[in-house]
């Protein structure tokens, strides 16, 4: 009887801990969003969103952050697409072609776990060294290369975990019917397609919100990004530079820029959930 009471007491404590954790996370989210809205909304205007910086924008004069919005979208879209194209074949190879439990499989997954946890500033420093060595200046291309390397481990590990959720019996059945490993892999990709959208979302969110990785590699420009080998502004860097200004109006623009970045991510999240819901209907 005392054992039952002890288990019920532990369950109650665990339930309270989970509720407190949920309240803390929700409260933190509301605090962050509330701060951005309170400090950024008064400075947000159509002119700020639709115009490039004019002379002296970062010391309180006219202009906007359209160049940073466009640069962030270019950077995040291309790097996420490249990371997806590279990451999905790696995940398929590790799960379909490498023997389960082998040294190669364990070594590769450990490597991607380590890469997943490395701070983005390290990626930026290494990419900057490589760029100097091969003669590439700070540009949109340098940022895309850096962020692609940063997001590949996210795609690989997320899809790897998704593939683990597929029942092993399904794999054996498909092989017993004469399917090749590639045909089985294509069927599994269709099975986890909603999850792949989530992996892409995670990679895109990391790509568009990272500042340390692009600080040394992308450079910064007040002009619209026209060529891939030119420096380009991004929203995180625009926020970083504006927040470092002593002028209150410029700091307010930084919060408005953060509000724009939050809205972009929110729109992407909603679109991804809609796509995932649509694809769920075709799940086998």
UniProtKB/TrEMBL annotation:
Keywords: Membrane, Transmembrane, Transmembrane helix, Transport. Residues 69-276 form the ABC transmembrane type-1 domain. This is PstA family ABC transporter permease. Belongs to the binding-protein-dependent transport system permease family. Pfam families: BPD_transp_1. The chain crosses the membrane at residues 20-38, 73-98, 110-134, 140-159, 196-216, 254-276. CDD domains: TM_PBP2 (cd06261). It comes from Sphingobacterium bambusae. It is found in: Cell membrane. It comes from the Bacteria. It is a multi-pass membrane protein. Its main location: membrane.
